[in-house]
């Protein structure tokens, strides 16, 4: 009977420790986010630019150089977009189209990237500060490397194509 009580007490003590142990999914996400950071992306949990969405979602952001801001646009996967939005390529619609046409090389890279992204990738957004992928992190770190290479190339192509001219800095 004493051994049973000792066993119960040990289980009672060990249970919280087991809850703190990361799950296999959390371990995979940790490796994915570390890999993304090593490939130039910052990862934050933020509210995505989707209507009627409650909560937060992982946002992978590649920053444009401060001296070369990027254009503003927002692409949404068909499954989360209104049919009233203008279609862009297979499975994606413009919520906000760029003011000026993108360069042909950048447009080609963007279309190829959109066709390869997993189904849980819901939004690709560009603002003057960065290029952002909103997705549920279904891929491994190795697979993500293919997307990161394309996002880095696209960021480099779109840098300097801001919708508004950068404000000159004032020297003191």
From TrEMBL:
It comes from the Bacteria. This is Preprotein translocase subunit YajC. It comes from Vreelandella aquamarina. The lineage of its organism: Bacteria, Pseudomonadati, Pseudomonadota, Gammaproteobacteria, Oceanospirillales.
């Amino acid at each position: 009977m004493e051994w049973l009580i000792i066993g119960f007490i040990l289980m009672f003590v060990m249970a919280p420790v087991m809850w703190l142990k990361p799950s296999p999914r959390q371990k995979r996400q940790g490796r994915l986010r570390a890999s993304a950071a090593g490939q130039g992306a910052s990862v934050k949990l933020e509210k995505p630019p989707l209507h009627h969405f409650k909560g937060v979602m992982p946002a992978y952001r590649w920053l444009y150089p401060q001296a070369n801001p990027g254009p503003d646009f927002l692409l949404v996967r068909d499954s989360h977009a209104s049919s009233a939005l203008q279609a862009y390529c297979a499975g994606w619609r413009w919520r906000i189209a760029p003011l000026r046409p993108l360069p042909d090389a950048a447009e080609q890279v963007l279309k190829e990237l959109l066709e390869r992204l997993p189904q849980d990738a819901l939004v690709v957004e560009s603002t003057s500060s960065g290029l952002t992928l909103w997705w549920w992190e279904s891929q491994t770190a190795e697979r993500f490397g293919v997307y990161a290479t394309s996002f880095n190339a696209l960021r480099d192509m779109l840098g300097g194509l801001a919708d508004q001219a950068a404000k000159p800095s004032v020297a003191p």
